[in-house]
Amino acid sequence: MRFIHAADLHLDSPLSGLRERAGERAEQIAGAGRRAFDNLVDFAIAEQVNFIVIAGDVFDGDWSDYSSGLFFIRGLSRLNHANIRVILIRGNHDAANQMSRRMSLPANVRELSSRAPETVVLDALNVAVHGQSFPARAVTENLALSYPAPRAGMFNIGVLHTSADGRPGHDAYAPCDIRDLRLKGYDYWALGHIHTREVLSTDPYIVFPGNLQGRHINEPGAKGFSLVTVDAGRVTNVDHISVDVVRWATVTVDVSGAGALDDICPRVGHAIDDALETADGRTLAIRLILKGACPAHTVLAGDPDQLAAECASLALQSRGDVWIERVVVETDPVQEADTGAMADVLQLIGRVRTEATDAEMIRVNLERGLDKVPLALRNEVGLTSLSPEQYSRVLADAEAMILHRLTAGAPRS
């Protein structure tokens, strides 16, 4: 017997500020979740798996229209025609009270109740599937404690959307201890909510499959579902199957000592080609981080548009399909002896940065400006809060931009 354990499909998840930067790539990235689900359905039919379990967050919240639901039902109907059952629960994003629109599901699909845990028995396979949907977005109690006892003589699966014993970056929903799950006596726990694949236990198997498709740079690497093989009532294999169509990666490039942008381009090109080795032929969305002390710091931080264009050009020249999601400059200037007017400018900038009154005035005005920027956009640029390190980097970038404009002879705005 083989079944698919998937979770966190987040169909039609919003781009969260990516649309403006993605340009012509926007629709490709926005549609990646749908294509990943199609890949799951294709795999299930081709491999003739026995059934599919989805551990919550099929959707990313209430639908703006019915297209999300219709797309999902189209995939479920294909599975129905192939005689593949689907058992699913709702998670925090698609909890019962989060969805104002509902549609009837095909006959092969069973959505477990949000009122209390319930059990679905697949008699032909001698399988019992236990689970409960989220009634509301914020479920803080340990739902696993009220799950029913295992059915004797059957292969028992628990389906739970949970933060388990806590994971950074995820809300503590339906928290539980691994001991709670082990003591329940089930043969396999199909978990959801955590977007990174993780096997918490192998006796019994307690698994987060991760999400089906990475949605942004903080969800890097291969994404997909778990294919579970059961023989004689015991799990023999839990294999990760990648179905993502856009893969995310952060690539750090050491540009120490580079004197100009032309010196940096070959290093960036090699780094992109190396990163492509991990993409498995998929579209690769890269965030480039440039580090190191170099004379080129002024042009890198001072002319971000030219830098972004050069990196995009290198991506087009690579051996695969690459999109540069962002270029982050974390280089440091190389101090050089300056004379004349430029020395006076540097002295003035240094005084503004270090003088307590001036520095505080700049910080206050910057924070007032940031307060008007949507939180999603601030998250994208890494300015959720203006920490001392971030503030120092903002001032350093501003200094580089001023010096670049002066040395390049460009008009000041």
Please explain how this structure is put together.
It is a single chain. This protein has 413 residues and is an alpha/beta fold. The protein folds into three domains: 2-242, Metallo-dependent phosphatases (Purple Acid Phosphatase, chain A, domain 2), CATH 3.60.21; 248-336, no CATH class; 337-413, no CATH class. Helices cover 34% and strands 24% of the residues. The strands form three sheets. A six-stranded mixed sheet has the order 4-3-2-1-11-12, with helices on one face. The protein has a six-stranded mixed sheet with strand order 5-6-7-8-10-9, with no helix packed on it. Strands 13-14-15 form a three-stranded parallel sheet. The longest helix is centred in the C-terminal third of the chain and has 21 residues, at 388-408. The radius of gyration is 26 Å and the shape is elongated. The model is unreliable at 409-413 (pLDDT under 50).
Explain the layout of strands and helices:
Blueprint: E1 2-6, H1 18-22, H2 26-30, H3 32-47, E2 51-55, H4 67-81, E3 85-89, E4 109-111, E5 118-122, E6 127-131, E7 155-161, H5 178-183, E8 188-192, E9 198-202, E10 205-208, E11 224-231, E12 234-242, E13 246-254, H6 261-276, E14 283-294, H7 297-302, H8 304-316, E15 322-333, H9 340-354, H10 356-370, H11 375-381, H12 388-408
Parallel strand pairs: 1-2, 2-3, 3-4, 6-7, 7-8, 8-10, 13-14, 14-15
Antiparallel strand pairs: 1-11, 5-6, 9-10, 11-12
Helix pairs in contact: 3-4, 6-8
Protein name: DNA repair exonuclease
Keywords: Exonuclease, Hydrolase, Nuclease
GO molecular function: exonuclease activity
